[in-house]
Amino acid sequence: MATKSEASLNLDLDLLHRLKSTEPPVWLAPRAELSETARKASKIIFSYLRTYAPKSPLDQLLIEGFDAEQIWQQIDLQSQPLLSSLKREVKKFEKKPEEIGKIREVLEGEKKVVESVGKVLEGERRVLAEESDDFDEDLDDGLDDDDEEEEEEEGSEGEEEKKGKGGAEGGIEDEFLKINELQEYLEEDEAREYGLKKDSNDSRKKGGRRVLDNEEDEDEDEEDEDEEELGVFGDSDDNEEEDEHRQKLENAGYEDFFGSKRKKAPKKNLKSIEELEEDSGLDDEEDEDEAVETKKNDNLSTHEKQSEQLRAEIEKMEKANLDPKTWTMQGEVTAAQRPKNSALEVDLDFQHNVRPAPVITEEFTASLEEMIKKRIIEGQFDDVEKAASLPSKAPRELKELDENKSKKGLAEVYEEEYVQKTNPAAAPLTFSDEQKKEASMLFKKLCLKLDALSHFHFTPKPVIEDMSIQANVPALAMEEIAPVAVSDAAMLAPEEVFAGRGDVKEEAELTKAERKRRRASKKRKFKAEATKRMTAKKARDNTLLNDNDGKEE
Amino acid sequence: MQSSMDVETVPSQLQNESGSLPPKPLFEPLKAHEMSDGRVQFRKVNVPPHRYSPLKKIWMEIYTPIYEQMKIDIRMNLKARRVELKTRADTPDISNLQKCADFVHAFMLGFDVIDAIALLRLDELYIESFEIKDVKTLRGEHLSRAIGRLSGKGGKTKFAIENATKTRIVIADSKIHILGSFANIKIARDSLCSLILGSPAGKVYSKLRAVTARLAERF
C-alpha cells in the first residue's frame, strides 16, 4: 500500500510539476493536454483521499467525457464530508494537545513527503494568495470558486493530517472525539464567551457580519501570527485568516498546540470561533438568558429537550399574561386607546348594515327595460287608486229647494203630509215619484227611437191602449217607422198637410170686391164680439147692485 | 136658569145625607148661540183698499166655504168697507166664527184663498207678522235692497223658503206676514231675518236645507 502510494505519489508529483511549470499565460487559452494532465492529477489525488473518506459514493474520479463542472462536483461530493471530519479532528486536538504527540511519530515517517508536497502546494497557494488578496474586503460568505479551490487544497492538507492521525475515521467516537469532552468544552467555551460577550454586546447587537468581521479582524491583528484558527470554516471566513491559519498548521509548533504562555489566545480564538459559530447559525439565541444558553448542548435527551421547549413556552406565556394586553384583546377600545392607524392593520369583523349597492350590469338594465315595456303594453301602471268608500247607508235624498211658486195650496200640503203620516200607502205620488215616472217614460221613448234607427228588421212594440193618449197624428205615422231617412212630410196626404177650403188668395191677388167683402166680414165679427162682452158686463154689474140692495135692506 | 138649578140641588143634597144621592145630571155641551146667553156673536174684518177689488173677484170662493161648511153668516159692508161675520143658530162650534174671521183676515193681509183656506181646515196654523224695522233699522235704499233680497229674483227666494218650510209668506212693503204651523213659522222667520240682516241667499238656502232635513227626519 505504501509503495503503491509512493509510486502514485511520484506520478502525481510529475503531473503536478508539469502543471506547475506551465506559464500562467498558457492557462488563459484552453488546451487539451493541460486539461488532460490536470484531470489525471485530480483523479489521483481523489483516489488518495478516497481512503480517508469511506462514505463517499464515488470510487474514483470519472474524467472521461466529463466537463469541468462535473469533475468539480465529484470532488465536492468527496471533500464535503471529509472537511467536516477534519474539523472535528482539529477541535479534538485543540482540546487534547497530547494526542498530537502521538501523531507526530506517525507523521515523521511521511514528513518528507509532506514537506515536498507542501512546498509544491505552497507555491500554488501563493499564486492563489495573490488572487485572494483581492477578496480581502469582500465579506460575503460563499465565494464558491475560492472555496472550491481551497477545498481541494484543504482536502490535500486534511489528507496529510488524517494520515498522521492514522486514518482514524468512521465512528463518531474515538480517541480523538469524545462526546463528553465535547460537551465540557462547549460549556467552558460558552462561559468564556458569555463573559466576553458582555463587553462586546453593544457593538454586536446589530448582528451584522460587518461588525463581526471587524472584530475578527481586530482579533487577528492583535494576535497575528500566533492565532490558532481552528479548522476550516466553510462559509464565514476571511480568506486572509484562512491563509494564515493554513500557514500555521503547516508550521505547527509546540506553542501552537500547547499555548501555555498565551492562554488567552485560544480563549479568544474560541471566543471568536464561538461568535462565528453562533453567528453562522444561532442569531436568535443571542438575547436569551444565560441559563438557556448553557443548555444548548446536544447531549440532552429528547424528553429533556421537549420539557425544555415546554418550559420556554410556559415562560413566554406567563410573561405575556403579565404584560398588559394588546388593544385588540381589550374589549371596547376607542380611537384614543389604540395606536394610530392600527385598526387598518387588524382584520376587523363587523356587520355592514348597509345593503350593498346593486351592481348595474347590462343584464340588469335589460331586465328592467323589459319589465317597463311589458308594463306599458299591458297598461298596468301601479297607479295609486283611490279606494272607493263603501256607502254605509243609502244616500240621503237631498231635498231640492223648489224656487217656483208652489201650485198646491197650503191646505193641500198639510193634507198630504197628514196622509203620509197616517196612511203611507194611500198617499198620492210625491213630486220625486212623479219625476221618476216621467224620467222612465222619456227613456222608454228614447230607446224606441234608437232601436228603430239601429235595427234593420225593426218590430215596434205593441201599442198599449192608454186613456191619456190623444195624439192627433195620422195613423200611418203611428204604425210605420221607416228605417231610412224618409221625412214624415211625404207620408202625409195633402189634405192632412193643409186643411182648408179651396180658393186661397193672397192680398195682392184679391179683387176690389173681394177685399171689400173681407173687410165687411171682419167688421161683422168684431161687432158681434163687442156686443157679447157688453152684455156680459152688464149682467155682472146688475148682480152686484142687486146684492148690495138686498144687504142694505 | 142654570144658577137656579145649582141652588136647588145643594139643599136637596143636604137633606138626603142619610139616604142615597140623586143621579148626577147630564148636560149637553153648549151650542154656539147658547154660550153667550143665546145672543149672536159678531166679527168684523176691515178691508184695506188694495184688497178691495181682489175681494170682489174672489168673493164667492170666500163666501161658499164660510157659509156652507162653517155655518157662519158672512156679508160685506160696502159703505164701511168691512166684512162682517155672524153666528147662526146651527153653528156647530163656537170656534168656527173665529176661524172664519181669521180666514178672512188672512185674505186681507194678502194671502191667497187656497192658502188661507188651510186656516179653516187646520187648527194649528198661525199667522205671524213683523216689520223689517223690528229686525234692523234700514232706511231708503237699504230698505229697498233688503226687500229685494227677501223676495229674490222673480220671488224665487221667497218661494224657496215657502216650499222648504211649508209656510206662506206675504211681503207687503215693510211688513212681513208668515202663515204656517208654529215650528215652520220659526224657521221661516229665522231665514227671513238672516236675509234682512244681510246674509246672501245661498247661505240661507244651505241653512234651510239642513234645518228642514232635520225636521223631516224627526217625523
TrEMBL record, chain A:
Keywords: Ribonucleoprotein. This is U3 small nucleolar ribonucleoprotein MPP10. It comes from Citrus sinensis (Sweet orange). It comes from the Eukaryota. The keyword Ribonucleoprotein applies.
UniProtKB/TrEMBL annotation, chain B:
The keyword Nucleus applies. Residues 1-19 have a biased composition (Polar residues). The keyword Magnesium does not apply. GO terms for molecular function: RNA binding. Pfam families: KH_PNO1_2nd. Keywords: Nucleus, RNA-binding. Residues 1-24 are annotated as: Disordered. Its main location: nucleus. It is found in: Nucleus, Nucleolus. GO terms for cellular component: nucleolus. Residues 124-197 form the K Homology domain. Belongs to the PNO1 family. This is K Homology domain-containing protein. The lineage of its organism: Eukaryota, Viridiplantae, Streptophyta, Embryophyta, Tracheophyta.
